[in-house]
Amino acid sequence: MKPATARLWADQNRHPDDRKRLFRAVREAVGGEKALYPGSYVDIAASFAYPSVTYVDIDRRTPGFFSDVAGIDEIIESEGGPPEPEIQFIHADYRDEMDLEPETFDLLISLYAGPVSAYCTRYLKVGGSLLVNRSHGDVALASMDDRLELAGVVTARAGDYRVSTKDLHTYLNPKKPVEMSAEVIKERQRGIGYTRSPFAYLFRRIG
């Protein structure tokens, strides 16, 4: 493993096994083989659970990291990831056109990366899942998207992630009346305050 790869991963992986537990809990709940992770930076933990992951990021440090194929394979193997992982990296802004086939992926990941769902849901298969947290208002955007419906929530307690499908009607309820369009949310990158706030949400693509 190249020294730069080791440094970047050590900085990313400050809470060892945390993201591994997250992605494994998600895959156990929704299944699938192929994941798309826009705005990933160097968070390769999705490859600890999914055999095929496409990472997208614009940070100048990411091409060097992902070019160290042997180093990344070493990390994934050390974490008990799938054998012979398939990894693709695209150095781009996910808001721009990407050379990816529509409706290709089983899982779309949106964690602290902006309005991913608004630009990348088209790459998600019908029946596939969007994993999204409240950062930058992307949960609110997903809830307004006719292509998506809430299918579960991810809760976190003492580092243990669980997916629940119970009482979904009690989520996505604003704390106070609010009228906000998708365009305003994308511009402000700030979402809506809800009465219940799990760690993340799982939406299913229905159209």
Largest sheet: 8 strands, mixed
**Could you give the order of the helices and strands?**
HHEEHHEEHEHEEHE
CATH topology: Rossmann fold
Note the overall shape: globular
CA-to-CA gap between the ends?
A: 42 Å
How many separate domains make up the residues?
1
- The CATH architecture name reads 3-Layer(aba) Sandwich
What's the rounded overall pLDDT mean? 95
Helix content: 25-40%
Strand content: 25-35%
The CATH superfamily turns out to be Vaccinia Virus protein VP39
Note poorly predicted spans: none
What does this structure look like?
It is a single chain. With 207 residues, this protein is of the alpha/beta class. It has a single domain (3-205), classed as Vaccinia Virus protein VP39 (Rossmann fold), CATH 3.40.50.150. Helix content is 28%, strand content 26%. The chain has 7 helices and 8 strands. An 8-stranded mixed beta sheet has the order 3-2-1-4-5-8-6-7. The termini are far apart. The mean pLDDT is 95.
Descriptive key words:
8-stranded mixed sheet, Rossmann fold, single chain, 207 residues
How is the topology of this model organized?
Elements: H1 3-12, H2 18-30, E1 34-38, E2 52-57, H3 62-67, H4 69-78, E3 86-91, E4 105-110, H5 116-120, E5 124-132, H6 138-144, E6 148-157, E7 160-164, H7 182-188, E8 200-205
Parallel strand pairs: 1-2, 1-4, 2-3, 4-5
Antiparallel strand pairs: 5-8, 6-7, 6-8
